[in-house]
Specification:
Shape: globular
Largest sheet: 8 strands, parallel
Structural class: alpha/beta
Strand order of the largest sheet: 7-6-5-4-3-2-1-8
Number of helices: 12
Order of helices and strands: EHEHHEHHEHHHEHEHEHEH
Length: 406
């Protein structure tokens, strides 16, 4: 499925659920977005607690009002399923949804991506919410794309995952003798007598068998991709017809992205190069290579789903981009085959982990901010080169990049 849009998508993650009690903020944001030539926002990525504040009790009205206002002002929506972070009530009532780490300790509620992809409870809760979202919003003219979850990553070592791993290994090798042969378990006398003895690698357990490590990585990738497919299936079963994507990032050690790309209609990824922290040429080469990897997955243009208009929030010294760097990085993505320039984020958050992450609209909230002015320039320039939208690259040289081999 080749997904084409009639323009470059320009905008980024928008989290108005942080500002629901301040409707004037939404109106001011729309004014500033239009002035910056922003035409697309990603909505609802971490909004589960607002969409389903109590188990089985959904509130989509606030979301529809925001989508309506954006659409009235020429701004389309990339609508997310919120499975990247679950609400507190779910962890309290169903502890099996929380991950178990490699020392076999169940983690507490907190952060994000702290959920088990194997858990039947979690899969069912996600399925139901995804279907309700599709039934409510897929026909809305303002919704142009579905965005399942956010940066799928991580692993779980709970009993459910251990059994699923054993089943996966048995399906792959059929007999325990073949497992021992392939993994060379006779070294150090680590032979298995049955599949029931197999468990994931651990720093306090088995950590010396390379074949076990590799197959555990393969299993985690399989389980993650299977979860993504289940999310997409829930949308389709509820009648969703809009294309689907999920945002990838750099060299994810947990997921084979070539497999994940098969589960969605269009590849998208989050690019955060460390500009001004080393040789700029090397940073540019690395970013370009990652763009090319994403383009190669479907041999189609991709979407730059996240990039940062200002400083990021996770490095020891976070530098503001030098004048012109934002446009240079944005046009590099376009040159490598992106059909979008999307940021994290549109407005800086009121609080929380990413409140200091760069944004189009700063806490300061005014339009004379240099970052905002540069975002306006990027938007103007993208409109001027619309003819390049969905352009193909006919390369004369290939680089072999194999996820399994890596």
């Amino acid at each position: 499925m080749s997904v084409k849009f009639d323009r470059f998508l320009y905008g980024g993650d928008y989290n108005p659920d942080q500002w629901l009690e301040y409707p004037e903020i939404l109106e001011d944001d729309i004014r500033l977005m239009k002035q910056a030539h922003i035409n697309t926002v990603s909505l609802g990525i971490f909004a589960w607690a607002k969409l389903e504040p109590e188990e089985g009790v959904c509130d989509f009205d606030w979301m529809e009002e925001i989508i309506d206002r954006l659409y009235e002002n020429g701004i389309s929506v990339n609508l997310a399923t919120p499975s990247g972070a679950r609400p507190h009530w779910m962890a309290d009532r169903y502890p099996e949804v929380l991950r178990v780490n490699e020392t076999r300790q169940r983690e507490l509620f907190g952060t994000r991506h702290n959920h088990c992809y194997t858990s039947p409870v979690y899969r069912e809760k996600v399925r139901k919410l995804n279907q309700r979202l599709a039934e409510r919003f897929d026909d809305h003219p303002g919704v142009i794309l579905w965005h399942v979850s956010n940066e799928y990553t991580g692993e779980c070592h709970c009993p459910l995952c251990q059994q699923a791993f054993r089943d996966w290994v048995k399906d792959r090798y059929h007999t325990i003798d073949e497992v021992n042969r392939r993994w060379n378990t006779s070294f150090w006398s680590h032979d298995y007598q049955s599949f029931d003895q197999i468990e994931s690698p651990s720093s306090i357990g088995e950590n010396s068998i390379q074949g076990l490590y590799l197959d555990w990585r393969r299993f985690v990738s399989h389980q993650t991709t299977d979860f993504c497919r289940a999310e997409v299936a829930a949308l389709k079963e509820a009648g969703a017809k809009k294309p689907v994507t999920t945002n990838m990032f750099y060299n994810n050690p947990f997921v084979n992205y070539y497999e994940l790309a098969d589960a969605v209609d269009i590849v998208s990824w989050d690019s955060y190069p460390f500009w001004h922290k080393g040789p700029e040429s090397q940073t540019a080469v690395n970013a370009g290579m990652q763009h090319d990897v994403m383009r190669a997955m479907k041999r189609e243009p991709f979407l730059l789903m996240e990039s940062c208009p200002g400083p990021t929030n996770w490095v020891p010294v976070s530098k503001l981009k030098r004048p012109g760097m934002l446009e240079t990085a944005s046009l590099q993505a376009i040159a490598h085959g992106s059909d979008s320039v999307l940021y994290f984020q549109i407005r800086k958050g009121r609080g929380g982990f990413e409140k200091l992450h760069g944004a189009v609209i700063d806490h300061y909230g005014k339009e004379d901010d240099r970052t905002y002015q540069e975002c306006c320039q990027v938007g103007t320039d993208l409109e001027a080169i619309q003819r390049l939208n969905h352009s193909k690259v006919e390369a004369s040289v290939a680089v072999i990049y194999d996820w399994e081999n890596r």
